[in-house]
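pinned: reference chain
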Amino acid sequence: MHSSLLTIEILLMDQSFINDCLVKDVAATEYWKAFEQAHPECQEVIKEARRYVSAIYAWGESTEIEEQWDKLQDMMSENAGLRPAGSVKAITAVLTKEAQPPRWFRRPVWKMGAAAAFVGILVTTGLYIINRQKQPPISYLSLSAPAGIVRKCTLPDGSTVWLDAGSAIRYKEDPLGNRGVDLIEGQIFCKVKHDAQHPFSVHTPAGLDVKDIGTAFSVHSYKGLNSEVVRVLEGEVAVKRADSTLQLLKERQGMGLDVRNGTWSNIDNSVGEDTSWISGRIELNDVTFGELAIVLEKTYDIHISFQQSDLMKSRASTSFNRKDPVKDVLDALRLIYGISYTLQGRSLVLYGPGHH
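pinned: its structure tokens
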């Protein structure tokens, strides 16, 4: 084979070469082994072509690439009646008397011309796959805090995240430098190590993307509630949802999202409200009993149910220390709001009129 005419495209159109790469035919393997020994100047081209075949066929376990190879074969068969183009005659010199492959290997060269454009697609696909395989994989670090415990975590990028009791996140470790946290459930407070080239973002279950602009901020999203809340303690964040406009929140500002209808509302972000839970002090201002129940469940590792569903919508304000016995908290709620409760083991039932 004339080394100056040997290209990756020609090799990719040669069934014998493909059979050798995939170890499908002993005769093909022997032929190409002998050819490489006889033509060391062709080894780099052959090596690169083998990479394309391996990449394409590894990806080709999917239907898409298999169909592309089928189309190539069909195209070559459909053009069986075409006369060889003059521009392709030179390629006939590829085979020499010194290194003739088996008869079944020889193919009319005009078929190469008919399929050349299509092979270009395969070469591009192979290059894409090879480049994709070279990219370092993205890894994820999962972190959680058990009921009753606040957990402080330092992330690989130097940022610090506090997880409230019963909260869980997943941190994306991207070799390209993209930084992000998926909030699975609960409440977190982030003190971000700012990097303008690689912004830090938090993604919530309802689709909020909270991106830092030199920031300390909190985000909470609990299963069973119909809202998500973002509060900024320092700096500024950009908040966006796929179906909404970009919102900017500055220091001491907060906003809530009603996940049922996608509406936004401003939230009073009082001093200390963002971080009091980190030190063990729980402060709840004008929340529903449904929201209060979630905090109690995460803090005391109990299950709460309501005898009357209307009580869940009643509103209350309270504060307590995480170390306070749950009975003390419930007794205070009973005195102020007229509720009653039954506590057996880890099961708590709330009932009574409450206040709207």
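why pinned: Residues 79-115 have pLDDT under 50 and may be disordered. The radius of gyration is 33 Å.
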